[in-house]
Amino acid sequence: MDLAADFSFQPLPAVENATQQPFPDVASPLGPLAPLAGKWTGRGFNVIWRPDRTPGQDRFLELNVTSEQLEFTAVPGSIPNRGFHQPDIVMSGLSYLQQISDANLKAGLHFEPGLWLTIPKTTDPNVQPTVARLASIPHGTTILVQGTATGASAGPSIPNIGIKPFPLGQPSQTIDFPEQTLTNHTNFRTPAAGLVGVTQTMVNNPNTVLQSAIAGQHFTATTTLHVTTGDAPVPGGGTANTAFLKGGADGANADAVTVSAMFWIETLQGQTAPTQLQYSQTVLLNFNGISWPHVTVGTLRKA
């Protein structure tokens, strides 16, 4: 998937007065995304409620300890966007390829080609500089998440999250299912061979995997990327699903409706550049009148 050696975006005609440094405090056109270039590897945890068609049962809880490789490559040149209500802009970006496998069962779980972009300040809509991620998932979903990039001279602030499903449109009305409790016997959760290394604490709050990974570490800087498919923190973004996932008159098979993710690009004490990347992503899958969280987290280190 490498670009031709002589490929480089070149707006035709050139974009006049283009902002080449969308984030003024970062000299690179890639802004806060610049440190991502290169190869990252590490471990993480994946939680997904899958549809199940067994009579009397609508769900299966899959839990995976994961191994991961994530590689970013800068896209040469300036990517033009032509405006109608405002002047043209140029963007800069990185292509990436993400590969995630089950670390216990040595089985591929996820393959994702995509792009990260820096977008300069716009006037229509009136939005400060942002970052965006465009991703294609082989199961039949594409996503566009857009949001903010903020820096701090400290370590990451990683929130607690849960995996409890809820009725459509009622996130405060969470539902407890027996599959969530590891001591409950069930045929509708990952079998024991796949649960090596999985604890109840991880299931209750997958972000504890990230919090534990950095316990005892000391940081000099963290860049936080917060991107979503919704209108917060900034407008823009969405998902698209195949006909199978969207379903028909009887409802969805597994419609991916929203995505929210946070990435932390971390510089540890004694280092001059970021060498650690953490992320937490939640996708809501809708089926059978319920929104089911699909949570993926990872801690990666730069090769």
Q: What pattern of helices and strands is seen along the backbone?
A: EEEEEEEEEEHHEEHEEE
Number of helices: 3
Q: First CA to last CA: what distance?
A: 20 Å
Strand order of the largest sheet: 1-2-4-5-8-9-11-13-14-15
Give start-end ranges of low-pLDDT stretches: none
**Strand tally:** 15
- Biggest β-sheet strands, sense, barrel: 10 strands, antiparallel, barrel
Residues in β-strands, percent? over 45%
Features:
mainly beta, two-stranded antiparallel sheet, 303 residues, 10-stranded antiparallel β-barrel
Can you put this structure into words, describing what you see?
The protein has 303 residues and is mainly beta. It has helices spanning 200-204, 208-213, 243-246; strands at 38-51, 59-74, 79-81, 89-102, 107-119, 122-123, 126-127, 130-137, 141-152, 166-167, 219-228, 238-241, 255-268, 276-287, 290-302. The strands form 2 sheets. The protein has a 10-stranded antiparallel barrel. The radius of gyration is 20 Å and the shape is globular.
List the helices and strands and how they pair.
Layout: E1 38-51, E2 59-74, E3 79-81, E4 89-102, E5 107-119, E6 122-123, E7 126-127, E8 130-137, E9 141-152, E10 166-167, H1 200-204, H2 208-213, E11 219-228, E12 238-241, H3 243-246, E13 255-268, E14 276-287, E15 290-302
Antiparallel strand pairs: 1-2, 1-15, 2-4, 3-4, 4-5, 5-8, 6-7, 8-9, 9-11, 9-12, 10-15, 11-13, 13-14, 14-15
